[in-house]
């Protein structure tokens, strides 16, 4: 009798070995980890952690008093927390979810920004009209820079040359030369500037004015205003339109602006400065953050105590996730 051209019994041991090897590798690797959103709850002195796959809160962590601003180190290993009423910046290890140290931030830290060198932290001290500069590695205060009344928003340019602070009562942007840690210039904007964000290429600075109800876009090289935008939402009184948080997409095509008690997020063409859409979210939307792949945008809604998850491509709200009382800041780790 002729043997078949291919004898299946000849391949069974090799096939079994390959199957077992693959299964073992999958067991070791485990399921792919989902991104985690970290949300500061201003009135609960806590952080809510949201699993971005299930869109559910998976853990609540106690932190300092009145946590507001949040940011990540450039390698995503450390989470910095403005514990405003504790007069401290807390540093949390993302892997262990434990506070590992506290930095001398000055009084009432609210927002901050990290230099590209991953060491210098620029902190706005609302009660003292100061910006405090901290070396995050040595925990030393490198300097304090006098700015306007009620400083709040902070941003550092991608090239590290400028740190910009907003002063709510003085209605100015303050340009700090990071090579000398001194004030170099001031730019007058609309009432109560709250937040600033540089474009990824560093050529533009976007600044929101809460009471002015506007968004100002500046040319960084000249520090001159390129455009001032206003927002008109059908059925919403103009006094309710109070721009706060800003996020620019990595590709430079879109900008998103939280409009406070207007309960909407504005979508802007970042090239033409045209307002494209308004997305209805929760009550008093405050801060924004992209997921690492930039497919989703998260918005903290202080009064309704939840986080809106927005699909960026379709511009649709996918879900509202209940968190603690008065969610303020948000960042997302891979």
Automatic annotation (TrEMBL):
Residues 38-110 form the YNCE-like beta-propeller domain. Pfam families: YNCE (PF21783). The keyword tRNA processing does not apply. Keywords: Signal. InterPro entries: Host-pathogen_enzymatic-act (IPR051200), N2O_reductase_N (IPR011045), PQQ_b_propeller (IPR022456), WD40/YVTN_repeat-like_dom_sf (IPR015943), YNCE-like_beta-prop (IPR048433), YVTN_b-propeller_repeat (IPR011964). Residues 1-34 form the signal peptide. PANTHER family: DIHYDRO-HEME D1 DEHYDROGENASE, PROTEIN NIRF. NCBIfam families: beta_rpt_yvtn, PQQ_ABC_repeats. This is YNCE-like beta-propeller domain-containing protein. It comes from Pseudomonas rhizophila. The lineage of its organism: Bacteria, Pseudomonadati, Pseudomonadota, Gammaproteobacteria, Pseudomonadales.
């Amino acid at each position: 009798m002729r043997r078949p051209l291919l004898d299946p019994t000849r391949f069974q041991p090799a096939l079994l070995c390959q199957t077992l090897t693959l299964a073992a590798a999958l067991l070791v690797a485990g399921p792919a980890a989902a991104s985690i959103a970290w949300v500061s709850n201003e009135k609960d002195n806590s952080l809510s952690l949201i699993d971005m796959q299930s869109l559910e809160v998976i853990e609540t962590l106690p932190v300092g008093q009145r946590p507001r601003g949040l940011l990540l180190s450039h390698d995503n290993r450390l989470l910095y927390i403005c514990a405003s009423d504790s007069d401290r910046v807390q540093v949390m290890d993302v892997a262990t979810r434990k506070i590992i140290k506290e930095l001398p931030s000055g009084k009432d830290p609210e927002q901050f920004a990290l230099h590209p060198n991953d060491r210098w932290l620029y902190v706005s001290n609302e009660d003292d009209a100061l910006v405090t500069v901290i070396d995050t590695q040595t925990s030393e205060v490198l300097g304090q820079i006098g700015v306007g009344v009620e400083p709040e928003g902070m941003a550092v340019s991608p090239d590290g040359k400028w740190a910009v602070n907003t002063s709510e009562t003085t209605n100015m942007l303050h340009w700090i030369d990071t090579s000398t840690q001194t004030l170099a210039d001031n730019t007058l904007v609309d009432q109560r500037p709250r937040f600033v964000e540089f474009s990824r290429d560093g050529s533009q600075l976007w600044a929101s004015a809460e009471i002015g109800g506007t968004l100002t876009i500046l040319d960084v090289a000249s520090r001159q205003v390129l455009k001032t935008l206003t927002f008109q939402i059908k059925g919403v009184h103009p006094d309710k339109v109070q721009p706060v948080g800003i996020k620019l997409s990595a590709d430079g095509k879109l900008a998103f602006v939280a409009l406070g008690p207007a309960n909407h997020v504005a979508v802007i063409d970042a090239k033409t400065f045209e307002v494209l859409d308004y997305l209805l979210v929760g009550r008093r939307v405050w801060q924004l953050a992209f997921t690492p792949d930039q497919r989703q945008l998260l918005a903290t809604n202080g009064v309704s105590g939840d986080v809106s998850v927005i699909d960026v491509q379709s511009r649709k709200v996918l879900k509202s996730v209940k968190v603690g009382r008065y969610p303020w800041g948000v960042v997302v780790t891979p």
